[in-house]
Amino acid sequence: MGNRRNLFVSCMLLVVLTLGLIQSVFAETTGTMKTAIVTTAVLNVRTGPSTAYNRIGTVTENTVLPVLSEQNGWVQVSLPDGRSGWVSGDYVKITSVKPSLLARVTTNVLNVRTGPSTSYDRIGTVTLGTVLPVQQQVQEWLLVKLPDGRSGWICGTYAELENAGPSAPKEETKGHKIVVDVSALNVRTGPSTDHAVIAVIPKGTVAEILAEQDDWLQVRLNSGKVGWVAGWYVSVIPAESGSGEGGSVDPNAPLLGKVIVVDPGHGGSSPGAVGPTGLMEKHVVMDVASRLAAKLSDAGATVILTRKGDWVVSLEGRVNMAHSANADLFVSIHANAHLNRSIGGTETYYYRGKATSAASYQAAVLIQNELVKALGLRNIGVKHGNFHVIRETKMPAVLVELAFLSNPTEEAMMKTAEFRESSAQAIFAGILNYFK
């Protein structure tokens, strides 16, 4: 009797595996796939399609899992750790998606996690240049298929999205470019407002059209980023009307031809301020600086980062870079700290005693105003500061203190991509206002 039961179970498992294989083949040939989004706080994962099977783990609410097969109200899913298991279909929402995007990793080493935030466990890493099919997107996080067949989540901030199979532009827009008609236009990862914003480009920006879908246009920006813009906010012009390869900016755009030095404070053996949970200033400001640099580049500026990774750059070295580039503006980005952990807020510094002090003050005021609006923290104001990088630079220069890492609430904010993106966008808006 025992042998018969074991044979029956083995046969059933073979059927289940075969069904999963058939669906996988179907997904690959049709280009479609299904995902299951968990709709309950904690959901059991079992070895088979009923409560009679053993529980092998749990998944939490809003976890998105690739679907392998379905049977009698149960769903076989691929788990973040590479295993497969079964969950009750009553507690998941099934969606069909057609993967049309690829994510190309743009940082040396990128963590892969079990869910769409840094609070989830790390299950591995991928390296610079790796191209991964995108299966799902939650805000700036991407569920990708890894080279070993597993699925995992990466932060989309450190990846460039490419269309896996873009539709060719229509004949009337083939070989043409767009010119942005509104004051600021979102560039998204896909052709709808459901997709994440990866850049904001100002009025007058010109970019090459790569593809189109419905009323959306896929374009290539100056920075090399590829994204989608709403077609009703742009004009289409012949390619020869623009200048530069792969995207340019209208000659009247305020940042065209400007050289801007973006200085992420600290780095390497100099971590800067360290928060109560260990968050380091050097990492926060590097992220914000990288986001800011991309926005400035997309708007037509020539951008110089004083460091592009976690290494030491002397104060003199930072100043020399700005002088060598004959920069029009120097922006140093920092996070603050105080012995009193209840103190918080945003402040921006300029140096009073140099020829460009008036212009420095103007830039500081405009950037501070945008930061306070965007971050909603206490407005400490614009102040004189005797800091080497803004004192010794000949051009207008400011030093931004985003928030206080020593304040637990503000440290928690600085851990989020939302805070970092808002900070970069605010500084960008302030710079744009300064050059108008």
Query: What kind of sheet is the major sheet?
Result: 6 strands, antiparallel
- Estimated share of beta-strand residues: 35-45%
Residue-averaged pLDDT = 80
Share of helix among residues? 10-25%
What is the CATH H-level superfamily of the largest domain?
A: Zn-dependent exopeptidases
What Rg do the Cα atoms give?
A: 25 Å
CATH architecture of the largest domain: 3-Layer(aba) Sandwich
Q: What general form does the structure show?
A: globular
SS-derived structural category: alpha+beta
User: Are there runs of 5+ residues with pLDDT below 50, and where?
Assistant: 4-31, 241-250
- How many DSSP-defined strands? 28
Question: What is the end-to-end distance?
Answer: 85 Å
What is the name of the CATH class of the largest domain?
Alpha Beta
Give the structure's gist in a few sentences.
It is built from seven helices and 28 strands. The chain is of the alpha+beta class and 436 residues long. The protein has four domains: 2-96, SH3 type barrels; 101-163, Roll (SH3 type barrels), CATH 2.30.30.40; 176-249, SH3 type barrels (Roll), CATH 2.30.30; 259-435, Aminopeptidase.
